Amino acid sequence: MAMLLNEDEKMLAETAEGFFADKSPVKQLRTLRDNRDDTGYDKGLWQEMADMGFTGVLIDEEHGGVDMGFMAAGLIAEQMGKNLTASPFLSTGILAATALKQGGSKEQKAEWLPKIASGETIMALALEESRKHNPKATNMSAERSGNGFKLSGQKGMVIDGHVADQMIVVARTSGEAGEMDGLTLFLVDPRTNGVSVERTQMVDSRNSARIDFDDVEVNADAVLGEVDKGGEVLGAIVNAGRAAVAAELLGSGGEAFRQTTDYIRERKQFGVNVGSFQALQHRSAHLYSELENARSAVLMALTAMDTDAKSAELPVAMAKAKLGQVAKLAGLEGVQMHGGVGMTDEYDIGLYLKRIRVAQELFGDANYQMEQIATMKGY
Amino acid sequence: MSDLKEFREQVRAWLEENCPAEMRIPMKGFDDACWGGRNYEFASQAQEDWMRAMGAKGWTVPTWPKEYGGGGLSKEEAKVLKSEMKRIKARSPLSSFGIWMLGPALLKFGNEEQKKKFLPPIARGEIRWCQGYSEPGAGSDLAALATKCEDKGDHYLVNGQKVWTSYADQADWIFCLVRTDPKAKKHEGISFVLFDMETPGVEAKPIKLISGKSPFCETFFEDVRVEKKNLVGEKNKGWTIAKYLLTHEREMIGGMGGDMRPLSEIVAGTVGLEDGKLADPMLRAKVAQTEVDEWAYMLTLNRKLAEAKAGASLGADSSMLKYYGTELNKRRFELMMDAAGHDGLEWEGERSNDGDLARMWLRTKGNSIEGGTTEIQLNIISKRILELPGA
Ligand SMILES: Cc1cc2nc3c(=O)[nH]c(=O)nc-3n(C[C@H](O)[C@H](O)[C@H](O)COP(=O)(O)OP(=O)(O)OC[C@H]3O[C@@H](n4cnc5c(N)ncnc54)[C@H](O)[C@@H]3O)c2cc1C
Fold this sequence. Notes:
heterodimer, A: alpha+beta, Butyryl-Coa Dehydrogenase, subunit A, domain 1, Butyryl-CoA Dehydrogenase, subunit A, domain 2, Butyryl-CoA Dehydrogenase, subunit A, domain 3, 3 domains, four-stranded mixed sheet, four-stranded antiparallel sheet, 51% helix, B: alpha+beta, 11 helices, 43% helix, binds flavin-adenine dinucleotide
């Protein structure tokens, strides 16, 4: 298994590292937050990401992308995690691109994929309906009406929902909550009558929305994939999301750890550097070990995605579980080892703690993944 | 590439011919391992044949150079060999401190004569080695060791005591840390010497462990004569060799138990499934957690080995692997004991194969002590990798 990066991948990782450190250091997130920016992301940055080919990393060349695959997407996500970069990369470059690739008709692909690659269109996935990730429980209804469908229900945790030009909505056309069968995906323009979008301010100062659908009429050609059979495409979408978020968490967790070790190396108490205390050293050494394992898990998940996305479900779930836990530990230990300054808004470590809390929750936290893993492995 | 394909075919054919059927059944426990040595009692003819065949081929140490008894294989070829052995579930032909610890140290620090003399018998399983590091007053603080080694002109004279010397009562030779300059700073007066355990003045007394077994000894040296040519490296510079050897030892301990059955399979075998789920939900969650951690750990072990050059040491990362791998192995056995419940507590009798599980469970407690404790590994990571002050 390719657990080592090849030359191309190393080069891309370096490029991405320089790019995000330069163009979107943590300062940028602070500015967006403090200015209460309407969009919550930097449009200029998004355009530059498009110019770099990042937005089209999963899109084939025919549709204007660079088609570099998941290892590349993960390397980009890792650098964004490291810099807490707020951008629609996950919602649009990963989730929507995967949705269209897996479920889109020829026309839908031709219409949307080039616009994603060029940075022109932002798309959001409207999936979650309750406290926790649970695609099977989808309850929002889509009833046949005229030559199309009528959508009713509420969605939450819609990443980039309030800036999206287009939404991918998961609704139930048949069956009951608790079944994967009977789900259908729809492409919906948020300006359609009956759609109301409320931007939700989240703990990580990143974009999210609650969206109400009140008898929203869509045409039959809004269906993405097959009616009642959306579960499979949805599976591919959330799988892609998990892999990308795991990679992002590796970046955030690793950076939180780096900042923490830097801090304890310098901070003095009792006349010595606090990093000389064994209680902190051993916890740091443990975290180092966990982060090394976390890196291997992410590399394996990304490799598996590039090999065969379907059979990648297990390694991706394992990586998401592992990263959820390890990055969380990095955030928690980070604040604790910073002492009082760790609680201040001035220090970045708190921003990492907050983003990690959000990211580990996306597409299923570690408990969710563990349950899936045991089930997939037959125990 | 096509060369590798051809090589794979050759390996497959050779294994087919030379690996006895009995050696294609997974080992049940430590007792099934083959250790070799001058007076070794093989468990079976098959075990001996397998070791000798692999030894003659140099495949007990695939990447060691041919002139020192190795297979002279490239890293890629060694991988092929490993995967072909795995394919037929072939047992490891030889477990050996010579292979895991002394060999790499000799390859790096030994002179030509020493390599020619000592390495081939290690590869062939003819000489079994033990490790004389720890002493009653020098455990974690290994450099505090006091075993005296005096220069007597044409030879050295060794006096002192080692402890926890694994298999000292069965080993043919010992690699031993001794103090050659009592006045120097503690790390600077240590030398690395080799001698035969049959030399007059050497005595090994087995110590009984909590597992009821006695794999290690107190080892006493009284006026033991050591030939000068058996000093490895420079006099008083043995600490560097000692540390280098430890990185290999740690890598080995960290990687132990890697190819065992999945934990969930073992636990399901005792606990059973209800509606396709492990009947005990709390245990199920812990098993899933441990399997995720084991998976990520095995990937890391492979990644670190792939990153390192063939035969090279992993440096301080061997401490990370040793720390994490041994703690994981302890967790695994705790869960196996949890799953086995009352049955796992049996100590004697046929039903439990004389308390096999309980004894193995107890043995794993030593994993995080031997080769430097968990706490010492964490100290090393803090100092060498994280560069924390005062570590
Ligand atoms: C199964 C087994 C096989 C072994 N085989 C061999 C062998 O073949 N050859 C050989 O030479 N030795 C062998 N050993 C010995 C082993 O290397 C030592 O037991 C080990 O290094 C610990 O030393 P100690 O027993 O003196 O414990 P101590 O050093 O006394 O440690 C006691 C406790 O104090 C902690 N501690 C010590 N120093 C520090 C510190 N600086 N910071 C934080 N905590 C600390 C330790 O982690 C431990 O928890 C073996 C041991 C075992 C268990």
